Structures are given as C-alpha cells and as structure tokens.
Amino acid sequence: MASLPHSAIYGISRASLSRSSYFARSTLSITAKATFKSDASQNLAAVAVPEDHQPTPTPSNETVLERALKASGPRNTWTREEIQEIYETPLMDLVYHASTVHRKFHDPSKIQLCTLLSIKTGGCTEDCSYCAQSSRHKTGLKASKLVTLGSVLRAAREARDNGSTRFCMGAAWRDMHGRKSGLRDIKEMITEVRGMGMEVCVTLGMVTDAQARELKDAGLTAYNHNVDTSREFYPSVITTRTYDERLNTISNVDQAGLSVCSGGILGLGEAKEDHIGLLYTLSTLPSHPESVPINTLVPIPGTPLGDNKPIEFKSVLRTIATARIVMPKSVIRLAAGRITLDDEKQGLCFMAGANAVFTGEKMLTTDCSGWDEDKRLLDSWGLSPMKSFEKDNSNPTMAAEEQEEKPSALFGTERSFDSVSKI
C-alpha cells in the first residue's frame, strides 16, 4: 500500500488548519533551516523564539512527564529520550496521565466515525511486506480498475446514514504520475461526497505539491500518508520507497493546506524502540498530524509478514497513551486490526486517548467492525459520534483557562514546513 493503498492498514483524518494561523508562526524573529538527514530530528528547523518569549527554567527535579502535563499546546521539540521516558512510565500511570491530557484538549465523550472504501484495488508496484495489494506478493487478490462515481456515492450515503462523518477513499497506487484521468475522476468524487456534508480523505500514494493543491481545490479535507514505523526499521519493511519520500509527500500535503493524516503499523516485527522512533518522527514534524492512525498488523497469507504473531496489547496501549501525551491535539485513530480487540480493550484505548475509529463493512480489503456493532460499543461506554468538521472538542473550562495564559516557547510553538528544505 504505497502510502497506504493496502488492505491491512489505513488511517485517515484531520480537520483543515487555518492557513493564516498556521503560517503566522513563521513571522518569529529567527529562522533556521535543516535538511532531511538520516535522523528524523534533522528533518526539522529549529524553533524561533522571540526575546520576550523565552522558556522559564524548569526545576531540576521535574520529570519530562510532569512538564508535558503542564503543556498549553503542542510541542515539536521532543527528543527520543524524552519520549522513551514517557513510554516506559508504569502502564497504569501512563494511561491515567494520557487520559488527563485527553480531557484537557478533547471532549472525552466524542469519537469520530470514519468509513473507508477501496476505489482502486490491487496491482500496486510497491513491495510493502504487509500489503495484500502489492503485485509482488501472491495473495490471490485480483487488480481492479478505478470504481465509478455512482458506486462511491452509494457507499458514502450508506456510511453517512449509519453515522460516519468522514468518508475515506484509498487507491492502490505508488504515486499519481501520469494519472490525469484518474485524478480528474477522483476530484469529482471528492466534490460530490463533500457536497453531502461529509469530511473527505484520500490516500493515493505520493503526490506533488500541485496535485495536492488540485485535491484541496476539489474540496478534499485530509490526505493520508503513513510513515509506517521508525526510520531505522523502515528498510526492513519497504524497499521501493524511502522514508524521506514519505516525509516529502507529507510536506506537499501540508503546504497545500490539507489536513495531514499520518501514523504507523504495530506488529511488523519491530521492537519497542521502533514504537518510540515512530512517535518521535510524528511528534517532531513541523506541525503535528491532525490525525494519527494506530494500526496493528492484519497478517495476510502470501505476504512476507503473513505468519507474524499478534503484537501484545500492552504495547498497543502504551503507544496510544504516549501518542496522546506527545501530540495532545491530534486525533488518535484506532485503524486496522481493531476488529481483534474486545470491548474492554477498546475501552482502555479510548481512556488512553484514542478518539476515532474506522467503521463499516471493510478496511479496504480486510474485515472491519460494523456500524451496528460500533453503535452498541459506543453506547456501552457512554460515548457519542463527533459531527462533521467538529475539530475543537476541548473542555470549555480548560480552553478558557488556556486563553488567559501565554503559550510557552517550549510547548506552544510549531515549526513551519517553509523552513524545511525540499528533498
């Protein structure tokens, strides 16, 4: 699944940021540049800090977690060591603190419901080790052409009528090079689904800046392009596309004014250091993804990872809780593999900060929890679906308090992609 055109994994969603507010931060008095290097930290420029906005020294006995709990906004100057310290917090404490952060920045009673449709299945030239749609793996999946507009609208109406407010479309392509007719047809799909009052997200592989802007003009809400895992482990999973190519697509999407949806996959055979590395990449992007899908591998017979054993749930829960703390305003989405979690495990994930799910008949080509099942699940936990474009779900009291405080240079600034050199 090039950017994620595969059956086992997909994650999407993010409400569009205001371009004016996003780029207002670029007027700070210092501008620094960095180029994409072998480490994710070198993908980013240094934060510019005005003279009257210097961070106050923190007490020497204050932990990383204690400082994170005091944050008034996102921070993208995390180090691997800081994220590791949070990740290794005793699990019960970690979930408790993640829940506290979640309640500070989101309405804990709301869950975003999204539905995903494969609009072009199979035949992808990428070699992603987990993907049923790769033409390099013998999974028995037959390649198909782009679906019709009518079939998309029927699926979108069914999803909307069942409570989904974001409709996601995935195509098994490496990129959009030479796909003018395909891009034209997809833009029409986007416009029509957006006209139904739904948020719209797509994952089409790598896109240029110009293509991202075309999609934005058609009404697209968000673009999904997962980084999948840590930079270090990535070559063990995919060889046909580099980590920096993924980051470059994310940059193009962000520059076009689209919401970025980017997350990863757990259970690929990675170690806990790779969970930390994944979160390090995402949390040190110039601006945190609006949506962070946490997928767990659905082993597909015929793929190189088809015999992998399921990842331990505790690792999934730790990753979700840490993601919530280091990316406090992002939507954390339970994506592929959720169908293997019972109600109690899903409830723990919601408590730890997950606030979105995929629901419906399929996750591209694998099974998904159905609408009726999820209605029962949400009702049993006292949760309700978000509305379309309902991105500011923070606690009103907390929000009012934050308006009275100046954001600190450490926790209230985000870098702009303008200061990151292109690959």
TrEMBL record:
User: Which parts of the sequence belong to the Radical SAM core domain?
Assistant: 109-338
Keyword check for Transit peptide = no
Q: Which UniProt keywords apply?
A: 2Fe-2S, 4Fe-4S, Biotin biosynthesis, Iron, Iron-sulfur, Metal-binding, S-adenosyl-L-methionine, Transferase
State its Enzyme Commission number(s).
2.8.1.6
Q: Which InterPro entries match?
A: Aldolase_TIM, BATS_dom, Biotin_synth/BioAB, Biotin_synthase, Elp3/MiaA/NifB-like_rSAM, rSAM, rSAM_sf
User: Pathway it acts in?
Assistant: Cofactor biosynthesis; biotin biosynthesis; biotin from 7,8-diaminononanoate: step 2/2
By its UniProt entry, which Gene3D superfamilies does this protein fall under? Aldolase class I
Q: Which PROSITE patterns match?
A: RADICAL_SAM (PS51918)
User: Which family would the database say this protein is a member of?
Assistant: Belongs to the radical SAM superfamily. Biotin synthase family.
| This protein's name | biotin synthase
